[in-house]
Amino acid sequence: MNFLRRFHDIVSDQSKNFDEKIHKLLIFGLDVFNLDIAIISEIENSTYKVLYVITPDDSLTPETVFDLDGTYCVHTLTADAALTFHKASTSSIANHPCYLNFQLESYIGAPIKVGAKVFGTVNFSSPNASMPFTQEAHDYVELFAQWLGCEFARKIANEQLLKNNNTLLKLENVANIGSWEVDLVKDKIIWSEQTRRIHEVPDLYVPELDSAIAFFKVGNSRESISQAVESAIENGDKWHLELELTTANNKEIWVSTFGEAEFTNGCCIRLFGTLQDITESVMLREELKNKKAEAERMLEDRSMLLAKISHELRTPLNGITGMLTTLLDEHREEKRVEKLKVALRSADILLSIINEVLDFSKINHGELKLEPNHFLLKTIFIDLGSLYIPLFKDNKVNFQTCITIPDDCWAYCDNARLSQIVSNLLSNSLKFTEKGEVKFSADVSDLDDKYALHIEISDTGRGMTKPFLDSLFSPFTQEVDAKRSKGGTGLGLAIVKELIDYMNGTISVNSEFNNGTTFIIDIPLAVGEAQIESNQRLNVDIDATNLSVLVVDDNQINRFVLDASLEKLAIKADFAVDGEDAILKCKQRKYDLIFMDCVMPQLDGLEATKILRADNICNHESTLIVALTANTSSTDKVACKEAGMDMFISKPFKLHSIEDAVVTAIASKAKLIA
């Protein structure tokens, strides 16, 4: 068989892989050139590495590395063509290290090139001298080198392609991006591994055009992708869409899909593109959108609040300043008392507005905290009924109460907030019922290990329209008819709803325009523990003439107000303007009672109290320290207690709160003396 036939049979044998073909090719070369050693090398810089080798005794193995200058191949590379030596000992390379070290007499080799770059060499050699190599031998070894160059180029390209493909698969996995292709000529769809993973289909799943589109959610998403495909095929339009997709496991996700068309001779033959799971991005975007809307709503609420409050504050402030101004020249006792009552009532309204604003702000910022305690449930509703009876009587409205709660029913919840809920609703009925009657009922029943509190407040007032009823519990909601408006902040019912939600209760309302309104409230309450109640005033005579009192406040008006209140109890107090001043005065004199403001310059009330207690200047047995502050949150109360304060009174205070503190101080002093 001639050379070309045998060469062709080796290189075209599809049953052999690359390495097997090379092995047969080297054996073929040894036979053709009648030599003993065959090597294919890779050359990089000055390094000669053996890739494939055949030797008689297997003394040389692949991966063996030589210095390039120590091999005959350095001359082959210099010649940049096939090179031969048939008797090296008598040639110009007789002193070459390769001959001196290995005694190779005969050699034939050629450079292997991949593109324009030299990859290595293919060479055959023997320690025995050979006949001079013919031109055909040069052609044969160069043919070997050319085929090897092509195959190495193909192998390198395949390895790079495989590497790129693996990298692409990794990137697809990391970015959750898959690729797809629609061959319109063969009517075939190809999905990448990541595309199948996004669709949650098996690895061997083969999609069709209709089934692929069927994954998109019925409605806008499916219509959009169908129109995009049609437009791409007809007009070559690209698309980028965000669509909802239902996976094979019925999981609903959002995907971003890019697509474009490929045309040949004006006919669309292929569609291809990418598919990315963007569910997290869409959810995050939606969350940010909602937060932005919430921030805008809060900003709008704040603007409305400021506008509303600035208007509502003027009425009680006008009552206070107007009455107090006219008192300066009023000498008739009856008129003075009447004007003072109006000023005090205006002050109560002002305080109520401020409290509503503070409650709304706490609720809006998630800072409202309930402060539960044990109490007799019935007393709250009896006290509220007693409070509102004269108010309804003054308005000539019949007020009926029905409190069917047992006298010994102890509950555990925030009784102040519970009272606030009912009081707000009764105030609404009082405000909007001009004639007829208001009914207030409260009863309780057992619910597993809790109480089920049921409250109903109904009136025969103006009622509400359907649109107004739908937005009843939204902040700033009020009657838009100026003739019917009764004023107010519009926060009351919004606060009521939030408080009931905080208590895990429900509120419903039935109303008919011009025919009354009924509020129904159901709140679960924890069962409370009976408490021993004591009334110190019954056992202690309020004689405070011998009580030493210190008032600590940096504000002169606050000091003046408290001094006036203490004078009514025949107490002449000392005063300190900050915490440092208070400590100095306590070192100079022993005090039975200290009213301590919390927020002051230099040294605040909390730190001053800690020092007084820690240094035993004022111990708990001899000195009662009462927090008197405008900071009224539960956190502030805890901070005052931890600092060493015994009682807590919020500003603006009522006189009875001061009396309670004085009574407690008198009782403590009497106990200490006894």
UniProtKB/TrEMBL annotation:
Record field: catalytic activity: ATP + protein L-histidine = ADP + protein N-phospho-L-histidine
Residue span(s) of domain Histidine kinase: 308-527
Modified residue annotations for 4-aspartylphosphate: 597
Alphabetical keyword list: ATP-binding, Coiled coil, Kinase, Nucleotide-binding, Phosphoprotein, Transferase
Coiled-coil annotated residue ranges, if any: 278-308
Iron listed as a keyword: no
UniProt EC number: 2.7.13.3
Family annotation (SUPFAM superfamilies): ATPase domain of HSP90 chaperone/DNA topoisomerase II/histidine kinase, CheY-like, GAF domain-like, Homodimeric domain of signal transducing histidine kinase, PYP-like sensor domain (PAS domain)
Keyword Coiled coil included in the entry's annotation: yes
GO molecular function, one term: ATP binding
Segments forming domain Response regulatory: 548-666
Name the record gives this protein: histidine kinase
